[in-house]
Design brief:
216 residues, mainly alpha, Rna Polymerase Sigma Factor, Chain: A, Arc Repressor Mutant, subunit A, 9 helices, elongated
Length: 216
Amino acid sequence: MNVVQGGTAETGVAPDEAWVGDLNDPGPPGHVAQRSLHEMLLRATRHQVWRLRHQLPGAGPADLEDLAHQAADDALVAVLAKLDTFEGRSRFSTWVYKFGVLHAGVAVRRQAWRHREVALPDTFDVIDDGTAPEGVVQAADLSRAVHAAIASALTPHQRRITLALVVDQVPIDVLAERLNTNRNALYKTLHDARQRLRASLLASGHLDKPSGACHD
């Protein structure tokens, strides 16, 4: 592989271009490049898994190593699928490292939630204390307004997704896996829900219109 052997001096090809060229090669150079890429990704995933090991209190070194390898496998598939999007704005190794870190984080979160139930609530508790200081009372009023907006302005699907992600803090990749969907679909649902909530709170006077906004 040109990159491993310092291909710049021997071939005149820049290292990043050599990586992309070799990984696109269907023959032996491509196989060698993929093995080297997997090693690079494993270094990234291993570092990230160990950094997040506090989220997996029952996991031993062998469990963490296995998780790092799984994450590196998934990251390798993702890098190869997006190889044509590499634009050279950063070093190839830096670009690749981000895939390793991302997939390691996903692997750790999934493992941490593996035996935890993911509830999809339709409502949540509201602060209500009439004897509380003024600031808390105002917060309670806003909380009730948000509660009402969630109940009336959102679709049942938007409500369940919003509460699971925002209130119960379910990791989005875990929720996507449990619901057999993908992150982008959940992001879209959450974005639409926030837009509806904002419009509802503006209409009820609990949010101020942005300065410069047009008035009817």
